[in-house]
Amino acid sequence: MKRSRQLLTVTIIFFWASEYCHSPYFAPYLQTLGFTAEIIGIMTGIYGFTQTFVRIPMGIITDVRGCYKQTILLGTIFTTVSSFGLIFATHFATIMFCRFLAGIAASSWLAFTVLYTAYYEADESVQAVTNVNALSSAGKFLAFILGMITASLWGYRIPLVCSFLTGLAAVACAVPLKPVPVKREPLQIAHLAAVFVHPAVLAASFFAIMMQIFLQGTVYSFTSAVAEELGASALEIGVNTALFTLVQIISAGFIGKKVLKKLSTAQAVSVGFAAMALSCVLVGFASSMYPLYLAQIIGGVSNLMVNSVLTALIIRRIPQENQSTAVGLFQALYGIGMTLGPLMTGFMAEQSGYSFAYGVMGGLTFLSALLAVIIMPRVDRDR
Predict the structure, then answer these.
(1) Number of domains comprising the chain
(2) What's the pLDDT score for residue 298?
(3) Radius of gyration of the chain from Cα atoms?
(4) Where are the alpha helices (DSSP H) in the chain?
(5) pLDDT at residue 99, as a whole number
(6) CA of 46: how far to CAs of 42, 89, 164, 353, 363, in Å?
(7) Sign of the CA dihedral running 41, 42, 47, 52
(8) What is the pLDDT of residue 365?
(9) Which residue, 66, 255, 355, 378, has most beta carbons within 10 Å?
(10) What is the 8-class DSSP label of residue 198?
(11) How many CB atoms lie within 10 A of CB 87?
(12) DSSP string covering 16-81, please?
């Protein structure tokens, strides 16, 4: 089992590397193909749109059959196929199809999360989720390093090759994984329905939607385009994006063991969203790369805090045999944010510029910080 845990750790890193090697350069790359910001927003948003519809049935099937390893393997295969197709895709339809496959791959993350947290005791769920989020950040950091080097040397298209190769590595590591037996009861519709209306799941999903609007509408899409408008090189764009995940890797232990244990759920979520709002303002009104670097550091730490708390909230409240369904619902609903974020930013940037778009995003995240103070204490009381 120890070997499988180590293999899963490496699989997570390579999986997210495959999903994100090309991410910082995808919008600039699509611009070189002649697509507008609005169209780029649609092609970026299909990634989240797919997850909205795939994650729930995938979670239910994974729970019913206990096929966590198979779901993980499926995810690694789909991300590999997606990135291979994007290497050659130049037309709207083919790019959309490849992004659709990437969305299916990302939907398998629910199985990674449940399988990893199964190695921990129930009272260690926050630390386990913080760790697994840090591993996903490590994969993204590896992705950004590979992308930064290859894009600087050979152009924006070559990071797609890195995505393909790291996907192959993820498949190779996932194949020998040993499944963890989960004690389960027979599927009952009443239990399934209870997951869909559970206050913790609904509250966490709402704030996750807002978090993904921020992430996919800024950090993982148009912040690189803002940097390019400021005259940043491919190397500077890579450094800027890598900072977001680097601070998550460095701070994961401290955040999980110290900060989140001292803050209530409401405080952690509220502080996190307020920090995200600040990072939006810094990017939207930047006149050089330095505010962008600071925004990525602030955004990275705040995202780690919010994501860890929201995911752990669900895992603590839902029985293990229904956790994939709950996490699937949670991730399906935040797929709405992954779809809306790029669409909103792309539309507003095309009409009124990036400063206006990032100002609106900052306003939405700050509103989320205020709502967290009202909503989350009620969820904590409803045990």
Answers:
(1) 1
(2) 95
(3) 19
(4) 2-20, 23-32, 37-65, 68-88, 92-107, 109-117, 125-154, 159-174, 189-196, 199-214, 223-229, 234-254, 260-262, 265-284, 289-317, 323-352, 354-381
(5) 94
(6) 6, 16, 20, 22, 24
(7) positive
(8) 96
(9) 255
(10) -
(11) 15
(12) HHHHHTTHHHHHHHHHHTT--HHHHHHHHHHHHHHHHHHHHHHHHHHHHHT-HHHHHHHHHHHHHH
Domain-embedded: residue 236: yes
CA triple 258-253-383, angle to 5 deg: 55
Question: Which residues form the domain of 338?
Answer: 2-176+189-381
Longest dimension (CA), the chain: 59
Residue 147 domain flag: yes
Domain of residue 303, CATH code = 1.20.1250.20
In a domain? residue 87: yes
Distance (Å, whole) CA 6 – CA 293: 33
Tokens 């769920």, residue?
125
Give the span between the Cα atoms of 80 and 164, in whole angstroms: 5
In a domain, 184, yes or no: no
pLDDT tens, residue by residue, 64-87: 788 888 999 999 999 999 999 999
For residue 319, count other CB atoms closer than 10 A to its CB: 14
- Give the residue ranges of the chain where pLDDT is below 70: 1-2, 120-127, 181-192, 320-321, 324, 380-383
Nearest-angstrom CA–CA distance, 255 and 262: 10
Residue-level pLDDT at 251: 84
Q: Please tell me the number of Cα atoms within 13 Å of 93 on its side-chain side.
A: 0
Tokens of 45: 């948003």
